[in-house]
Amino acid sequence: MLMRTDPFRELDRFAQQFFGNTPATWSRPAAMPMDAFRDGDQFVVCFDLPGVSPDAIELDVERNVLTVKAERRPYGGDQVEMQVSERPFGAFSRQLFLGDTLDTDHIDASYDAGVLTVRIPIAEKAKPRRIAIGGGEREPEQIDA
């Protein structure tokens, strides 16, 4: 259903934990945590985007590639003097390669409590179906007892 696309994500996460949030990592979009699972006849992907305004989220699909972009903006204003800044801000991006078994024409998305939930129906051709077994043209033999 879903193919992981970023083999260097764990390496980036380790480097960020080890070196901290340095200026070198600010220019690269950060990965957003996600869960992906099948729920009946649909595939569901949930992205954690706390503190992101719904109007700062873009969701696109092109040729079975789902792209999620979001931006968490820093608190602004002349009077703001940051004391502690541990939450990352800036651009976040994630791409997922979707299998051919998903119906990308009917994707539904909702955003609630900082979680973007994307629901993708399973294509009809990929759903399990029962195959009728036809009988031969011979009549069954009767056994006399």
TrEMBL record:
Residues 25-136 form the SHSP domain. CDD domains: ACD_sHsps-like. SUPFAM superfamilies: HSP20-like chaperones. Pfam families: HSP20 (PF00011). Belongs to the small heat shock protein (HSP20) family. This is Hsp20/alpha crystallin family protein. The lineage of its organism: Bacteria, Bacillati, Actinomycetota, Actinomycetes, Pseudonocardiales.
